[in-house]
Design a protein that fits this description.
By secondary structure, the protein is α/β, with parallel strands linked by helices. Helix content is about 25%, strand content about 30%.
Length: about 350
């Protein structure tokens, strides 16, 4: 009897080809799309290429019909709003810069969606992420490796996966390049072969996070002071949600040298700015750790740390703290270490684990 795989289909080229590859490998495939959009959200979510849009469901359904597989739409907009959007807004109001895709993966895709897969008698869940998963017999654990196509590698947003989740999840695209996937889609005659990749955050159509938050939670955003490192008031800001660590543009202040956002202080509603060198940091503290390569980190290790999705991993010393946090000491100071973002640790292409940046050091 064929093993049954529940394929999470976003309506894009990646998940569409992943479904086709699973069929070629002999699996029974059922396509599902999470209905995440909510018509009450500011500006709606009907964005071309967006994984939350109505067109995404239409595209996924057409692909499923082309491949001849069953297809279902799962209504998850209430959970998505609670777990992802509310978190996103709350973090910005706290002066942090969150990564909602990581939370979506943890709380929605690889939590509730795995439950849905089990209810459909699925042996596995599969996604179109560019990452490789295998079982390491020496470690006695499932492990993650970066995708072969380093320009599309998505391991950064998957560091939170647990062993039970990895045991039940397949990533068919890990050994392919994006170019090869688009070529495969064209060969299969899939109408999504040239569809653009989805934008950064699916529920903010124009990527204006500040305006989205102001409309989503009216009255929560207040203007305040922009101050220098000594506390001198240099100007006014429109609300801390409009700023992030390392930002230079849009400050609206005059100074003899370029100034950058060094710190966001929600308790006093202040934006602290400083010269370029002030936004380079020697290290960071991280909490909410999840380890994939082992059960827990008990001794300090040398590894590479990636502090944002678009950053390259850099050499660092990772030191466990007694309270469950880790201290990360960079080999070279890093620019714009941002609270709320994830830090993910690697040795070569092996994903060790990661956590949430609490503060820069």
């Amino acid at each position: 009897m064929k093993q049954r795989v529940i394929m999470a289909m976003s309506g894009g080229v990646d998940s569409s080809v992943a479904a086709a590859l699973l069929l070629e490998q002999g699996y029974e495939v059922i396509g599902v799309t999470m209905q995440l959009w909510d018509n009450d959200l500011p500006y709606g979510t009907e964005v071309e290429g967006g994984c939350c849009s109505l067109s995404a469901v239409d595209d996924a359904r057409v692909v499923a019909n082309t491949l001849g597989i069953p297809y279902y739409v799962l209504n998850m907009h209430a959970l998505f709003r609670e777990k992802v959007i509310d978190y996103f807004v709350d973090e910005y109001l706290k002066g942090r810069t969150p990564n909602p895709c990581i939370v979506c993966n943890k709380s929605v895709k690889f939590d509730l969606l795995l439950e849905k897969a089990a209810s459909l008698d699925g042996d596995f869940l599969a996604t179109g992420h560019y990452v490789r998963r295998s079982f390491d017999a020496d470690r006695g654990r499932f492990v993650l490796h970066r995708g072969v196509d380093m320009s599309k590698d998505q391991s950064y947003v998957l560091y939170g996966m647990t062993q039970p989740q990895l045991a039940k999840t397949l990533f068919p695209l890990g050994d392919y390049t994006k170019a090869a996937i688009r070529e495969k889609a064209a060969e299969l005659g899939l109408r999504v072969a040239s569809k653009p990749d989805s934008q950064e955050i699916c529920f903010v159509p124009d990527q204006d996070y500040g305006r989205f938050i102001e409309d989503y939670q009216p009255g929560a955003v207040r203007p305040g002071n922009i101050v220098d490192e000594s506390g001198k008031v240099l100007g006014r800001h429109r609300g801390i949600i409009h700023y992030t660590i390392g930002q230079r543009k849009g400050l609206g202040i005059a100074a003899p040298e370029p100034l950058f956002v060094k710190e966001i202080r929600p308790e006093t509603n202040e934006i602290v700015v400083g010269p370029a060198e002030s936004v380079f940091f020697e290290g960071l503290l991280a909490n909410e750790l999840n380890w994939i390569a082992w059960e827990d980190l008990t001794d300090e290790i040398e590894a590479k740390a990636k502090i944002r999705y678009s950053a390259q991993p850099v050499p660092a010393l990772i030191k466990p703290e007694s309270d469950g946090r880790v201290r990360v000491e960079f080999e070279m100071p890093q620019r714009a270490v941002t609270p709320g973002q994830a830090v993910v640790f690697y040795q070569d292409d092996l994903v060790l684990g990661g956590g949430t940046i609490e503060r820069a050091l």
